[in-house]
Amino acid sequence: MMKKKPLSLAVQYLIVVVVASVFFSAVVMAWQVRTLYQRGLVERETLLETLEESYLPLISSRLFFFDDAELELLLQGLVLLPYLEYVAVLEIQGEESLPVLERGREPPSGGRRDAFPLVHRFDQEDRLIGELQVITSLEGLREMLLRQTSAIAVASAVQIFGFALVVFFAARGLVFQPLRKISGFLHTLDPAKPAGRKLELPRAPWERRFPDELDEIVRALNALISRTDEAILSLEQTRDTLEATLEEKQSLLQELYHRTRNTLQSLRAILNLRAARVRDNREFQEAVRDVDNQILAMALAQQALYESQHLSRIGIAPYFRKLLAEVLKSHGLSGFQDRIVLEIAPVSLLIDTALPCGTMLVELVSNALKHAFPGTEPGTILIRLEELGDSLLRLTVADTGVGVGPDFDWRRTGTTGFETLRAIGEQQLQGRVSFAGTGGVRWDIVFSTRGYTERVNHG
């Protein structure tokens, strides 16, 4: 979706000025038109009052004395008055009113009709001798107002246009161009890098003598930019120092892991040399082999850390595969590899959790290799590590061997291997160890990965 180009503040300001000017001009014009129209209504009422007070007696007298010439002159004078379009004199003869004289014309819009009685006093008595009918209209006033309104509208449009241009260019130079300069400068800033320069507005000498709000904004921005540059430079120096320190610590840790692995390998070599001198004691040989495999689990974990980019976690699947290969080799059963089923979730564990898992795996697999398949009986060993959710894992080691009797209680055997298994699974990892011995042996150890916190960040 295309990003809409923002409407310039100057254009918005110009639109506001024009709309406001048009609005106020329209209000003023409407007020003027209303005032003129109200004045016309008042003038018409005044005309009718004057007609009734001044003209009616004269018209009544001329009608009574049958002075048609004078009566015609009066009517011709009346139709020349403003707003009066038509006049007619009617004479009452019996029950009827007969037209005597009329002047003017009836307006198309109809206008306002008024009738005035013509009364003449004769022999101390007022006699009704006729009627004066008049039609007044404001049509002329409306036409005049329309002409005036058109002229005012044209003049106002010219004034508004000129005023808007003056205001626009004044605001453009004083406000909008400096704001655009500020906006453009801010868009060039990179929050991750120091600016290295200050914002300056193009100002005339007289403008510099009288700083305004924009100059205050620029001064505040420059102060903020200066402090930000100092903070960025300080952060860069701190980052460089921390990176150098971290790199040094990582190198030291890798060297420590390397030396630990070599030390464990040396310890294994010493054990094997001592065991080689006592070949006739099988129980001693098996004990040394078990200890050697436990040391092997530690050595392989240290090697995985040394080879990993991460200094506190190792991938559990490759670690288990290497460990199983070495355990089978130590038992002289490298060909048994095809009878082991591995189902390992692709997880990485902290070394504090992975190493106890490796120790338990060595103990359980070694126990299965020793006792599950006496003679040449076929069978398989299942090794599974699965995620249960909520940071829980379950390690399963199960064989299809001969199993044990129903009365077997692994917690009461007192053997070193089972005691080690219980201590690691239930105490060190704070987990739960389950055992089943019918139709083969099955071990399930459920534990949490939250028991330890990461002490070394990723390199």
From TrEMBL:
The reply to whether Translocase figures as a keyword in the UniProt entry is no
**Coiled-coil region:** 232-259
InterPro entries tied to this protein: HATPase_C_sf, HATPase_dom, Sig_transdc_His_kin_sub2_dim/P
EC code(s) of this entry: 2.7.13.3
Q: Which reaction does it catalyse?
A: ATP + protein L-histidine = ADP + protein N-phospho-L-histidine
Q: Which residues form the Signal transduction histidine kinase subgroup 2 dimerisation and phosphoacceptor domain?
A: 255-330
Residues making up the signal peptide according to the UniProt record? none
**GO MF term list:** ATP binding; protein histidine kinase activity
Q: Transmembrane stretches, by residue range?
A: 151-171
Q: What class of enzyme is it?
A: transferase
Q: Which UniProt keywords apply?
A: ATP-binding, Coiled coil, Kinase, Membrane, Nucleotide-binding, Phosphoprotein, Transferase, Transmembrane, Transmembrane helix
Which top-rank group of organisms is this from? Bacteria
Histidine kinase/HSP90-like ATPase domain segment(s): 359-433
- This protein is called histidine kinase
* Source species of the chain: Alkalispirochaeta sphaeroplastigenens
